[in-house]
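A quick aside before the break. I want you to see a complete sequence-to-structure record at least once, exactly as it would be stored in a machine-readable document. Don't worry about memorizing anything.
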Amino acid sequence: MFKVDNKTFNSLNSTYNACVGDNGGFYMYAYVKGYKEAVEILLEKVLAERYLLDSLVYPIIYNARHYVELSLKASIDNLKYINQILGNKCDLIKTKTHQISHLWNIEKDLSSADIRYKSVVSKLEEFIQDYSDMDDSAETFRFPTDHKGEFHLKTQGCINLEAFAKRFAEMSEAFDDLSYMDDFLVNEYRVTTVVEHYPRATIESIAKEMPPKPWNNEASATQINYLMGRYGLSSGQFSKIVGKIESHREFASLIGMEIPLEGLSLERFSFFIQEYQSFGENNKHVDLKTYWENVYKVSDAFSLDEITILAALREIGSYDGYYSEDYDYVREKRMEMGKDVLLGEEMLKSLRTLEYIKKGLLMTGQKTLLKALE
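That is the input. The structure line, written in tokens, reads:
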């Protein structure tokens, strides 16, 4: 849409400008947040002063209902992505509707793909039914009559806004839980560690419960049979999951294997630790020119491969949103930055570099390299 600039919609006074579109409010959750906050502000006003209840009830409940509709549509978008990663077809699912009951049925159907949604979605069931009973089509609080000229609320009489406010707060908390679950699982499925319809979390759980290799004794066979029964796996499915575990750096380490990061030896990592610690001690109070001269000296002592390996480990260890699968992508991006920048702007500059690298090594199952930090 083209930019509107007139006497009503302009941006002449920055003190009162609200950011919209790609300047701050482009995504669905910006709209969700806005309608939620509008309800909360209006409720606070009318309940504190008991003023204008009879007129403000309409925008209050309309905004609340629209908050419900947008929250469901936002979650459905995330669920469609998750289901596509799992191999479930979502092409024919239509969400261009205002009907809450229809959107809720889609939400329940798609969320059944991952059992972790069950408790979160069940908390919302009663709230969604309430809104569906009152205004399933988004017209009851928008217009006084329907398309036939019949009054929407003719037999309702009253709506207690104090009770409504309490329920809205409870529902908002449940939607916040759903939004958190969406964000968490979309990030997990993003790394596409899936075997048939089994998600990363299930594969990780199985890896943690597997006996260490080699599996050549009766106890191992007993545990494997137990896991197959517990997770409802056929022998073929179990073999595929084991194959994924054995080829996955993090999960392989859980069964006694190690998939080394090629390009960095224990000796070279130990040398980097010495250089890092010496650099920190010797460059506390130097000027900028001397600092970078010393960075270049350290840089000359290491290859690009060695530095990017360590930089990638540091990166994935510094943020909880990363998975071990992100290592290769992060390392590739770090390659573009070059040794000097990585060392001078990130690794040698930070007091927590070794802490983050250690976490990255743990994530990727690098037991040999971890010895250098013992």
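Two observations worth writing down. The chain has three domains: 16-190, 200-254, 266-373. The mean pLDDT is 94. We'll return to this after the break.
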